[in-house]
Design brief:
Elements (H helix, E strand, L loop, with lengths): L21 H7 L16 H7 L7 H9 L9 H15 L6 H12 L4 H12 L1 H4 L2 H5 L6 E2 L1 H11 L6 H17 L3 E2 L4 E3 L6 H13 L5 H4 L2 H4 L5 H13 L4 E5 L2 E5 L1 H8 L8
Antiparallel strand pairs: 1-3, 2-3, 4-5
Length: about 280
Amino acid sequence: MSEISLSVETSQSAWFGSRAEKPLLSAFGFRLSGGGAHQSKTMMRQELESLVTPDRVTGDELRFAAIEENALGKSTANTRRLTFRHMASLYGLVEQPPLTKVFLKLWQSDSIGRDLQALLVSLARDPMLRETASVVLECAIGERMRRLRFEEALSSAHPGRFSEKTIRSVAQNCAATWTQSGHLQGSVKKVRRRVSPTPATVALAALLATVAGFGGPAILSSIWMRILDLSPDQALDQLRRAEAIGLARVRSAGDVTEISIRQPMAATLGVRELEHV
């Protein structure tokens, strides 16, 4: 298996550990390059709420509900098709890799955690959204966040690739997503606020970190946990809570901490594909 090659200087490098393998990342549901839904849309949190229900599981069922039954409440057939196409791309709703299957299971069992779980999946599947995460993480709680900082981050990551208009549009969409996730508050003047993840959400972050090549304590200090505004100790405490609901296994002996996520999640959520990624 070939390891993912990312320079430590790039804004993408923090997301992947030294043991990350491209084939496994792709098979799990990560997208490592290219554009994403945020070139046209936000993470579409409200649309997800309208579309994903307990009786809609497969890609065909979700597509039929979105386009034929107009579960998204769009005014034209073209708009319904376009919106679903963006949603399917961002969340893997049609092909449903293991990441999507886990997400859809958690969506039904942990309604409180939906905002942050949708963000985590969006980060895994949209490289351009990942490029704006450092802006949010570097902003102090209570500090005002200006969209220009998102524009600067995107321009720095893609020098000369996009027009100013495109960068402005993507920055606006990314800022809206960080607002939908709860990291930012306000319509015009956005202020950084602290998010409060559920144990299931922290287990999802640990799963992403594990597949992304982190292990042991490195999971707790990875960017996947910092996105949830958690210190390593707070992340460990939440994973112990996740263990109580069957989504993690944590073992500590002295200074050694072992964290297992894939097998407990595979068994509890019934996503057997996790055992092979």
